[in-house]
Amino acid sequence: MTPPHPAWLPVPAFRPVGSRRVRVTGTGLLVTTVRDEVAAAVAAHGGALVDDGPADLELVLVGDGGSGEFDASGGFGGSEEFTVARAGTTSVRAGGGAGLLYGFHHVVRLGEAAFAADFAPRRHAPRQPIRMLDHWDNTEVHPFMGQVERGYAGNSIFYADGRVREDLDRVAEYARLLGSIGVNRVGLNNVNVHRAEARLLTDLLPDVVRLADVFRPHGVRVHLSVGFSSPVTLGGLPTADPLDPAVREWWDRATAAVYAAIPDFGGYVVKADSEGRPGPFAYGRDHADGANLLARALAPFGGTVFWRAFVYDHRQDWRDRATDRARAAHDHFAPLDGAFDPNVVLQVKYGPMDFQAREPVSPVIAALPRTRLAVEFQVTQEYTGQQKHVCHLVPQWSEILRFPLDGRTVGDLVDGVVAVSNVGLDRFWTGHPLAQANLFGFGRLAWDDRLAPDAVLDEWIGLTFEDPAARGPLRELMDDSWPTYERYTAPLGVGFMVTPGHHYGPSVDGYEYSPWGTYHFADRDGVGVDRTRATGTGFTGQYPAPWRDVYESPETCPDELLLFFHHVPYGHVLHSGKTVVQHVYDTHFEGVEEVVRMARVWAGLEGRVPDGVFGRVAELLAEQLRCATEWRDQVNTYFFRKSGVPDAHGRTIH
Ligand code: BDP
């Protein structure tokens, strides 16, 4: 069995069965994309693209549609909606080209169900206007980091030898996938903007134009990460002070040049005053001054600045708990609510630390009611197995988007969902072939955070694997893989314990005595970070009720977050009835056993999935088992030696 198309990205194939007739009505760039999709499907699978006469499926752009036109509200606005109905004929109606494209892909996902029985019109609209993937791609290969920072799927699909690739076929496949799952924005370069990448804004702009041209027919706007000190580094000015008129002029001019080349350019992404990046603090200004400087340059053109809230001091004194890194984003940004221009979107990592397998939801999301927010996820699996481990993250994102804060959910509170992408030049795009499910699932959840994660997984499996007998086992293997990963890694929300630098595999004390702010404080008596108001860093006080009190007390704090919020003795009894140390032992043994089971399920799929996929996943499951075993042994041994408490079941721990 060979993959459905050479690169095997899960762009669902449209298969009009037998003599099915399809009509596409309307004009514009995205309507042409839809018509091309139908024409290609008809050529491959039969049926006909018709101009008039009866049709089994009609895709209709209603009114003039503003087809393909972007609006300034953060996406295609109302033109992203579509309605589907069936009364003898299945019809998709949309007021804009993007809506028609999304409606088409909706029908593709429905498959035969779209033609089975009549149904009344159903309206579909995205929950989030902003659905964005950020690429941490560098134009050049970096000696230590590779080309894609935290990339686990080979080199960049965008860049080679310091500029945009000649051959953009792969980018076109990727753009098509993003259009099919409703992603409407993409960030083209690393948030850590090095010297070489800074040139994308200036002399490499014609290259960026080529990328924008490839994404546009799929309804995706491009964005650039920019360095805050660009007026100095690129413009030769003596300062990048956001209140300096010459600095303002520099940004206005640079931005106008970008829009002259790319009229539908999305805007900028900025990491400032974080991990060594320059920012407004150097000039005694705050982050509203910084963000508004860029927002005002972008505003005349309808652009947006994505300003990251990931601001903290990575050179702090680890002994001083008052500088708790978890507090930093809220401390910096909550006081600025109301100070940001309307075209600023504050991009907030989902947790207060850094993309761990388990963190509480960031309190920043509830703290700025007058500011537009986007929540940021990692599709790239930096801390969740680096696309060597199966770790299906859609349930994690779903849990976060459904989390209630102030009577609303995170999904209600934000204007957008952003994630770091996980693709590269790898044959299967994502290193681990099953990591494609995270990319697909991100788009689906960004469109509608009320979708059930297991339904999204079933959708991906159904669209990707042809043999129906493979579907049940795949689901069994994947749907619980995030909790499995959590079981064999850092326990009870304490986080990190990864190898410093590359962040793969265990190193329990790896970051414990460094200045990065990521500690577990394990000693002979207990473990965990006291973030209470009563005796700790006070972080619990950043939450609204009821969470400020729920998290404050170990009695009410959920088990899975206990060590994020509390330093407790090893004998502390969890709600589960187990002691902390016995929980550590049990989950680590269980986690490894689950990986053994996953490998067994996969072995049963030989011959039911494409050979190349089978081999790659089998190899990676062996690595996952090796690594999970290493995690189990290091974590269990560590806690046994610290606590002196033997395993209640007498299993071997050295
Ligand atoms: C951390 C990564 C680092 C990124 C940083 C960020 O280790 O490579 O630059 O996040 O989000 O998780 O800016």
UniProtKB/TrEMBL annotation:
Among InterPro entries, the record links this protein to: A-glucoronidase_C_sf, GH, Glyco_hydro_67_C, Glyco_hydro_67_cat
Top-level taxon of the source organism: Bacteria
- Tell me where in this chain the Glycosyl hydrolase family 67 catalytic domain is found: 123-427
Limits of the Glycosyl hydrolase family 67 C-terminal domain: 430-651
Name of the protein described by the UniProt record? Alpha-glucuronidase
Query: What organism, scientifically named, is this protein from?
Result: Saccharothrix lopnurensis
